[in-house]
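User:
Can I borrow your eye for a moment on a structure tokenisation matter? Would you put together a sequence-and-structure record for a protein of your own picking? Please set it down just below, with no commentary around it:
AI:
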Amino acid sequence: MAPLLTVKAIALSERYTQFQTPFRFGAVTVESAPQLFVHVEVEVEGHGRAVGASAELMVPKWFNKDPRLGIEDTVDQLRQSVAMARGLYLSNRKSETAFGLHAAQIASQVERCAAVGIPALAACFGPAEIDKAIVDALLRAVGRDVFAGMRANIIGLDARLTPDLGDADIERFLSARTPSRQIALRHTVGMLDPLSSLQDVVRENGCRYFKLKLSGDPAQDRDRLAAIAAALAALAVDYQVTLDANEQYADVRRLETLVDALSDDPALALLAGRLLYIEQPLPREATWNAPLGDLGTRFAFIIDEADDSYGAFPRARALGYRGVSSKACKGLYKSLLNGARAAVWGEEAFVAAEDLTCQAGLAVQQDMALVAFLGITHAERNGHHYVDGFADTPIEEAEAFRAAHPDLYETSGGRVRLVIRDGNLSVTSLAVSGFASGVVPSQVGPTTTASTQGIKEYGT
């Protein structure tokens, strides 16, 4: 039986993160963003108190792409989301399982955020980050690693939010997981990234998976994909690709033009034969009014930004989508439940691993552990690419991560950074007590414990 717990304290803080190169996706170019840190103190029945932590970059203009909002407005919405979630979790004094705490609050969180104009995707950010910290604290309290803990369903995951599943489906899925020992890195080619950089990526890191950003203009995207195909062919790498439109295709007609080019254009033939799926082509709202029809039989499509609720994946599947993205910033419980759905539905359904620039340290490790547990073999990884290693993280913290996870980090170019060997990232050292981190929460982020005073906190 999953342990019951109560949340005693939640501390929130930020650290500024400067990118080394601009990241262009959709209609926005990101050059910097704040990284959120969450420290939670819980009391676990029979095990006493423990502190857990989580971290995530608050990326502007992704959770909410409303053109009327500025970049800072969208980051402030994420801060509000976390503040509201903090208030809800602290107000619940009833002992619950880790998942039970989430399930008890998520509807109120979405409703309260909607009342002040925060969309569901952004509303889910706050609970997602607090949930990760709670899981970290729970695992530390009972002395288990995330892989063994999840297999035993220590979080108390059940079907109360997913009526299309049964509790037995979820238990079978969790208990049958055999986590991947390494994850192949899928290198993002942003809209501003020079194609000449592909040579360095292949030669230095051995990457063979690539995620290519699209602009939403079929002609422009066709020409750019042809150039990328030629560049990869010249490197003689045995590659596979995914395409990500970040909601930029205005309608199905334009999307059909791109798909026709992928199907018929000789310059795209090799790339199209190595295409795994196309991610979130249509605006999230338009997704639900536009069945893919024949397009969904020609290539696999997945949703990402449209994945804003527990019912999104089944709705998308009914429209011809075969997959959904896993991102820890959207909620680890939703990723796990979508994994259970894919297992029940069979080979045509899948969960893909995407990344919203998880930074070196806690953020990337917790997301990678989730990916590995789901059994996904390759994942987009942006943090190593657009940010210079641990960037402005204090050297003591960066060195603590390097010492605790020597298979994952090394010192290079004067900074601690991810180790990429033959295109792969190791997850072996993530099997430690807690949620994928051998560095204790007191050493992570601008705050030290969940009750620390003098830090920047949001709300009460």
